[in-house]
Design a protein that fits this description.
The chain has 312 residues and is α/β, with parallel strands linked by helices. Helix content is 37%, strand content 14%. The chain has one domain: 3-Layer(aba) Sandwich (Rossmann fold). The chain has helices spanning 4-9, 25-35, 50-55, 75-91, 109-114, 117-126, 176-181, 196-208, 222-225, 232-241, 271-274, 289-310; strands at 42-47, 67-70, 102-108, 131-136, 187-192, 213-218, 248-251, 254-257.
Length: 312
């Protein structure tokens, strides 16, 4: 596990000057994940989304590694193909057998939880030596803030409006991290951009394992969440402290909580996470008290589930 001094000396593989919004959690997630690759060469793929369209506007690119743009649905499939081609060239003697290369695919929650789930599941099941990273900002931000299956219960989105008919998204969010753990791959983790040491450590582990690895990274979107651009990391931290986003990892089937700071006794009420976000402001109207209680109950249920799997 690298310390902060060592990490500060590593090359930043996503250059500044891109067109992502100020305060975007996606670029923070990418930088921290790529720091975990160490000095090993990396090939990156990225599904269509905010991260892709804002970092690769022709003829410019912010990526300082070989980069492949993929459609919404096939980032995992493309990178698994690149990994297979690399191994094939090694078997053919066209690339030295001892040459090291890391392969990583990035996708937002729309391209991962929803559109890209099939190709992601296939790549993990086939056992490719690659890392898949989902930057979870809770909606289809690139195309207009439509709800995804990662959008939380009660959140506003342009396809989950607040008004006479509804009060935000009526369904709870999909638990993608557990779905990936059910593939019985070597490494699965849930992390947040607010916990840099936890995230970079998990990235190091993901890149180090032989076979597939998956990391789900909490990455707030100021535009879609209706928060100030300078509050991204603070909101991400509140997600952890309220247990909305538990931090854990699954190594070879063994679940483990990766922070002892948040427990059932000392975690903050979910209001601390919800109140600063404009997408949840309707939850605090008197007539939505029952819905707000349901959101807290859902967080309680999920945290108890994670604690139970981790033996905490």
């Amino acid at each position: 596990m690298a310390n902060i001094k060592e990490l500060s000396r590593r090359e930043d593989r996503l250059e500044g000057g891109h067109r992502l919004c100020a305060g975007c959690g996606a670029s923070i997630a990418v930088r921290q994940v790529l720091l975990g690759a160490g000095l090993t060469p990396v090939v990156a793929g990225c599904a269509t989304g905010c991260l892709e369209v804002s970092t690769t506007i022709y003829p410019y690119s912010s990526w300082k590694v070989p980069f492949i743009h993929n459609a919404f649905e096939n980032s995992a499939a493309t990178v698994s193909g690149v990994e297979s081609a690399f191994k094939g060239l090694q078997r053919a003697g066209k690339i030295p057998a001892d040459k090291k290369m890391k392969f990583v695919a990035f996708g937002g929650d729309g391209g991962t939880y929803d559109i890209g789930l099939q190709s992601l599941s296939g790549a993990m099941e086939r056992g490719h030596d690659m890392v898949y990273v989902c930057y979870d900002n809770g909606a289809y931000m690139n195309t207009g803030i439509q709800r995804s299956s990662a959008t939380p219960l009660g959140a506003w989105a342009t396809t989950a409006e607040v008004g006479k008919v509804g009060q935000g998204k009526p369904m709870r969010r999909k638990d993608l991290t557990s779905i990936m753990a059910a593939h019985h791959i070597p490494y699965v983790a849930q992390a947040s951009i607010s916990e840099w040491k936890d995230l970079t450590t998990k990235a190091e582990k993901a890149f180090a394992v032989k076979g597939p690895a998956f990391i789900n990274v909490f990455a707030p979107c100021p535009r879609g969440w209706r928060i100030p651009y300078d509050k991204t990391v603070e909101i991400a931290s509140l997600a952890v402290k309220t247990a909305f986003w538990p931090l854990f990892e699954v190594e070879d089937g063994v679940w483990k909580m990766t922070t002892k700071r948040v427990t059932s006794e000392n975690r903050l009420p979910i209001e601390e996470f919800l109140t600063p976000q404009g997408r949840f402001k309707h939850l605090f109207k008197p007539e939505n008290a029952e819905l707000l209680a349901a959101v807290q109950a859902e967080v309680d249920r999920n945290f108890a589930y994670v604690q139970g799997r981790c033996g905490a």
